[in-house]
Amino acid sequence: MSSGRLKLRRALVVDEDPLTVEVDGERRPAWADTGLLGEMRVGDEVVVNVAALDLGLGSGGFDVVHVNLSRGLQGGGGGGEHVIKLNYSSLQHPVEPVERPLAETHGPPATPVLVLPLHGHLAPAAWSAAQAAPEAKIGYVQTAGGALPGSLSRDVAELRERGLLCGHVTAAPAYGGEHEAISVAGALDAAAHGLGWDAILAGPGPGIIGSDTHLGHGGLAALDTAHAALALGMPTLLSPRLSASDPRERHRGVSHHTVTVMRMLLGAVEIPVPSDNPVVTAKLADAAAWRHKLTEVSADLEAYAATGLPARTMGRSLEEDPLFFAAPLAAGGALRAKG
Question: SS3 string of 133-193?
């Protein structure tokens, strides 16, 4: 049994862009959450967590700065926040929750929620949802299941810059977004009522957690997110994780992540399916049984490829795995049709 202890090492910042540190004479790529830790300068002495890079994780191939010993020990503002995130960890910090006060009362929000199985669906779904109504306010709620720091996602930054997302809420253990929510349900409710979003994309940050087990993976976060949306009375859609060329059999065709969530859901959701994929549709129909509604939606892969938005997943391009990208494109189109 592993100890689970932090694998921390002292390091020296040797380059700022891209951030590179030297650990025991070896130059290594690194990432720092500057929102929590402050800026990093060449020559700074830092402590880094080296576990992900040492394990060779595909989506975590860098060291993570834990603290900047040269200039990061004086942080902390004098704001009025009174709620802690990452509580009882060494990175606990105060936030102002976006959830609505108890005194506010509203009926069930009609804002539709598209539950994403992993972060790679965010950009295609956001682009597709925005095509029919460029002025619509479509935002992103980041959940557990992948990376927790909101600032780690380059996709979110690009989508915000292009106006394809109107906002970014980090919910539950995720942190560092434009707004903070203590729960996913609170984030969805606040997005609909307090922030006035017209539609919500909700799913994990980059680097989904995987363990080659039935239930021990980040894809199961979709189950909790869908249940929260359903409990709030929100129209709920689930973007299926599909692939034509994933080297892992459990993710080819329809991923076991999606099948598991569909079978465990306690309420009915809509599953948009990219058109002209009869084998995939049949497998999803089997998992849906009589409970979930399948809707075939066209996916404009050519138009999305021309946007220059992210079009790679686990090292595979859109051309190499069009089915992976067709799923969120179809789902985004179905979300927009409901909004």
Answer: CCCCCEEEEEECCCCCEHHHCHHHHHHHHCCCCCCEEEECCCECCCEEECCHHHHHHHHHH
Residue 310's nearest CA partner among 139, 186, 94, 126 is 126
CATH entry, 113-338, from 3.30.920, 3.30.2000, 3.30.70, 3.40.50: 3.40.50
Question: Cα 215 from chain centroid?
Answer: 18
Closest CA to 203 of 219, 190, 215, 189: 219
The pLDDT-based confidence of 11 (bands split at 50, 70, 90) is very high
Sign of CA dihedral 291, 330, 142, 52: positive
- The domain locations on the chain are 8-68, 113-338
Task: Give yes or no on whether 8-68 and 113-338 have one common fold.
Answer: no
CA distance 308 to 329: 15
- Which residues are within 8 A (CB) of 195 and not within 5 positions of it... i.e. 6 or more apart? 98, 137, 139, 166, 167, 169, 179
The DSSP bridge pattern shows strands 8-16 and 19-23 to be antiparallel
- Please give the Cα distance from 316 to 333 (Å, whole number): 23
Span 267-273, average pLDDT: 97
Contact 108, 134 (CB under 8 A): no
Mean pLDDT calculated for residue range 135-144: 95
Indicate the pLDDT class of residue 1, thresholds 50, 70 and 90.
Answer: very low
d(CA 298, CA 105): 39
Fold of 8-68: OB fold (Dihydrolipoamide Acetyltransferase, E2P) (2.40.50)
What length does the chain have?
339
Q: Is the pTM of this model over 0.85?
A: yes
245/238: higher pLDDT: 238
